[in-house]
Amino acid sequence: MSPYSPANRSSPRFGDLFYKGPDVEILRAPEIDRRYESSVKGIHIIGDLSGIPLLKNAVNMGQDLIEKIGPALRESDLEDAEYHALIVGGGGAGLAAALAAQEMGLRYLLVEQKHPGNTISSFFKGKEIFAEPEALPNRSRLWVEHSYKEELLERWNAAIEEGNLNLVDCEQVTNIRRDGASFVVETTKRGYRARRVVLAIGRSGNPRMLGVPGEELPKVHHVLVDPDAQTMEKIAVVGGGDASLEAALALAPHNEVTLMVRARTVKRAQKANTERLHQMVESGKINLLTESKVVEVREHSLDVEVKGEAYTLANDRLFVMIGSDPPEAFLKNLKIRTEGEWSPKRVLSLASLTLLVFLLYGWKKQGFWPFVAGGPLYAWTSWQPSMWFGLLYSTVITGFGVKAILRYRKDPYQVKRYISLILSQIFLFWIIPEIIFQMLWPVQDGWRAYGLFFPAPLYVWNFWAPQNAHIFWFAWSIVISVAGVPLMAKLTGKKYCAFVCSCGGLAETLGDSFRTLSPRGRRMRAWEDLLTYTVTVLVAMVIAFGLADKDSGWWKIQGLLVDFSLAGVVGLAAYPFWGNRIWCRFLCPLAKLLYIFAKDNSRVKIASGQHCIRCTLCSKYCQMGIPVMEFAKNGEEFSNRNSSCIQCGICITVCPVRNLQHGDWSEERWKEEIEQGPPVHVV
Ligand SMILES: Cc1cc2nc3c(=O)[nH]c(=O)nc-3n(C[C@H](O)[C@H](O)[C@H](O)COP(=O)(O)OP(=O)(O)OC[C@H]3O[C@@H](n4cnc5c(N)ncnc54)[C@H](O)[C@@H]3O)c2cc1C
Ligand code: SF4
Ligand code: SF4
Ligand code: SF4
């Protein structure tokens, strides 16, 4: 089971707050410019590693890069370098770049750690290759069409041969360093000098090794491509995740299989895989060794340790499936800056933005100089600052909302959602409370009309001093908070956050371009829980103590700490640094309440198909930090039972192969959907 599968997802533990181990990996894309040049001048990044998935994009980037840098490079002096360009990685991006470089007459070399097309050849036998997006032309000289992996690889090998490409394989690049005007590229065999380096190493990373003698023997593998290729063999599989379980299950019918896991039980794999494994173990078809490890790999045997005791197992083949090391460390080593990395400039921007938002909210609140009565900005206009503030908020949400509608225009769900956010802001959170109840038909304490559509604990002000205000406000807040919130959650999950809420509106419109910066992982989820519960308790105390003694200072805490500092300043200023939903994810008490009431809502959910290509876009674009791909790659559905999803649908919109959908989906419906045509491709 993935760490985010339903069973695991529901209970972050205290220890997760300090978790530092491996987590669901979303590679932060490296910073690159229009010529795909990284922060290290002279090193270019193309293909999956740049953060843009899919084969067609990869080959187009390879072609495009050489067209952009090739002509000047060809005219430049090689000086002490052997090559104009050294291309690292022989996947679609690297091969397309090599073909373009060949055509342009550059001196280039492609270095591949295994063999060209290594990533594609590790897909299982007969894997269908989708040439998405259909509408995007392939501008490169490398063949990419809707096909099967075998045909694609055949075509690529023919292109390499016909093109007589200058490439070396079975040579891994281990380091790159600048030396004068050139780069020295070190590999496992030697060093090369080149003027430019093109990194096209994909994002699969390198398989983790056991670090024991004999691991380099040809009988050791890290992927299972064709389970039917092995019969009557003694096979050991190492690893407790889904990949190793699936390999053991696929090999067991025709071989003698031993599954070795380090832990006391198998607990990281999907429930279905674990159940099937236990059936196979009980029927004697798989030998399960828990608390075990390989000590040495020999040609026909394995030295192992099981619960501290040494044994030797007869063995013909070993599959080591203990995950892979993402290429992030490689980039870090080369000092290539990735998206969202801290620098003095960024710290300064954070400080300036915080100050700006502080002044903006300060003006609305008028709680301190220069906004207090008599302060220089007090009598600026005859309108209340909140009237201006509402106008500003509505203008920003409308402006950026229209921008988002244009961006996501191919998806009717997004168009509906953004129209709903814009209209909610204009009518529910500006015209009704400011214009209708305070200007056109003023009533006493008309500002309390904000509480018509904001329930507690997000909006607590109608509980304050109820004896001075009309009882209606107090009663209404009780009704929508006590009955409305649970009912809304039961019927619509957390859709209020994606369709109505004004703070959510700002996050989804002004903050749309920052959604990929949201913090992710187990640790963040634990913090999310801890902080929202803390704020919820604080707000509950404000309401309770405030009701008991209306003159107590508790309301001030709510006003200054929660409304002003956390929701206003921190929430908004954080957009460009930690994504657009910091307040919503880590601090909003209403979010926690909606989540709790929506937990048994099994109708509002997102279904996953079986054709995920693990491009990570869904997880990357989820502003709530939900590891969507962890569900999607296992074909699992998710809802508020196991995630804090607000049903914004962005993950569905960005999925390039239509692998995600709202609601229940049958096999048939998935097939029809795929046949329907090119997916909505927004990135
Ligand atoms: C399960 C799965 C299914 C997919 N299905 C599809 C699909 O149907 N359609 C589609 O368009 N896309 C699909 N993709 C995505 C597609 O595979 C990638 O977008 C594409 O392979 C990216 O090409 P690339 O050249 O950037 O990287 P890769 O193809 O990953 O190539 C990187 C190459 O670099 C080599 N390398 C890595 N490190 C080093 C080093 N240090 N030194 C030397 N060489 C190195 C690797 O061995 C590899 O050959 C799928 C991906 C997965 C995981
Ligand atoms: S989490 Fe809170 S502030 Fe954010 S959109 Fe939902 S209700 Fe509004
Ligand atoms: S999982 Fe998808 S629908 Fe849910 S919040 Fe994230 S992006 Fe939105
Ligand atoms: S579900 Fe779609 S967007 Fe998410 S990883 Fe799979 S293919 Fe990519």
Task: Set down the secondary structure blueprint.
Elements: H1 6-9, E1 43-45, H2 55-75, E2 83-88, H3 92-104, E3 108-111, H4 118-121, E4 128-129, E5 147-148, H5 149-163, E6 167-168, E7 173-179, E8 182-187, E9 191-199, E10 206-207, E11 220-221, E12 234-238, H6 242-251, E13 256-260, H7 271-282, E14 286-289, E15 292-297, E16 301-306, E17 309-314, E18 317-320, E19 324-325, H8 328-333, H9 344-365, H10 385-407, H11 412-440, H12 471-492, H13 495-499, H14 502-509, H15 522-548, H16 554-573, H17 575-578, H18 582-586, H19 589-598, E20 605-608, H20 617-621, H21 628-632, E21 638-639, H22 650-654, E22 660-662, H23 667-675
Parallel strand pairs: 1-9, 2-3, 2-9, 3-6, 11-18, 12-13, 12-18, 13-14
Antiparallel strand pairs: 4-5, 7-8, 8-9, 10-19, 15-16, 16-17, 20-21, 20-22
Helix pairs in contact: 2-3, 6-7, 9-16, 10-11, 10-14, 11-14, 12-19, 15-16, 15-19
The chain binds flavin-adenine dinucleotide and iron/sulfur cluster (3 copies).
The site of one iron/sulfur cluster (SF4) has 14 residues, from helix 20 and helix 21.
